Amino acid sequence: MIKKEMIAMLLAGGQGSRLGVLTAKVAKPAVAFGGKYRIIDFPLSNCINSGVDTVGVLTQYQPLRLNTHIGIGIPWDLDRNIGGVTVLPPYEKSSNSEWYTGTANAIYQNLDYMESYNPEYVLILSGDHIYKMDYEVMLDFHKANNADVTIATMPVPYEEASRFGIVLTDDDNRITEFEEKPEHPRGNLASMGIYIFNWKILREALIKMSDQNNCDFGKHIIPYCHSNKDRIFAYEYNGYWKDVGTLSSYWEANMELINLIPVFNLYEEFWRIYTKNDALPPQYISEHARVERSIIGEGSDIYGEVYNSVIGVGVTIEEGAVVRDSIIMKGTVIGKGAKITKSIIAENVEIGADCELGIGDETPSKLDSKIYNSGLVTIGEGTVIPPNIKIGKNTTVSGITKSDEYQNGMLHSGEYIIKAGDMQ
Question: pTM of this prediction?
Fold first, then answer.
């Protein structure tokens, strides 16, 4: 039997509903990031940089682009005869077909996959965070403490603590209590959703808890291990870690990449972020173009002005267009004379000539102010906006739109146009 010391299970089935129209057609881990990457590239690159060469990627919601992106794992050096990367969607079983209903249920449904490697340790990861972490250092910590379970944790501001699973520890970093999203948190050491389990402990917990509805690590598996008197330790991580689960945090994380000394550095030789690279020509910046403090992807043609923005691959910014504080994804065309401010524009969008995005005063979104806020304009994949349209803040447009759908050529702050089929 093949024996691997540690294998990774990467949960990438999430819908990412807080990203609104950005995830209407694509799973959150496949959303573009930093001009050339997708969010899932970060945990996958961490695996190969940490010497973990066997990764099961659990997909579910809108998996097509994610599956195509991962392929057989070549960019991450994960195309291997033994191990490598395996995409694990829910599948038909003889008795019934079951969707993954919770994080632990998804892992439980793949016991056979894990069993086939008979690992000593299983690393559980989430596919939607931006960070660099050496999982080998975490494994050394796990072994040194003779732990059954190790949870990666990091301090968070007290006012945000109720969004996370919070752990309380003793002087040896052993976890004495675990509270999932507590209303009144007693500590601020938050679980990052990264776990190392001894395989036998994980297997037993998954089988014992398999009848729980929406079986989840934070709600079921960790409390079960705790009640079983298993040795659970907190591995404290103090590097950069960003949950890009909301439009504002996604926008901020992209904007942080273009700081003079970025908090999160994509240019380090010793800890590379790998991705699937299409064979694209180099970028072209015309003599009249102006680019300041921006990332410009390969194959992009810039004839206008770009300030403080992240421009993806194969984007065209036509003459006279001005893009500021924005994220423009792959294959999008910004028409002549258009003015784009603080916008997130998804892949393959057409913005007509002389449009203006991100103007006027802020008004709360009428669609969902929890999702569409911070003054951002969010444009869904494949959207077409006709020429001469003005769009306010906290707005969203998704679908092929026509001039007569905009009142006097204007979409006021807080308004939205979402065509059938583009809704999350």
Answer: 0.87
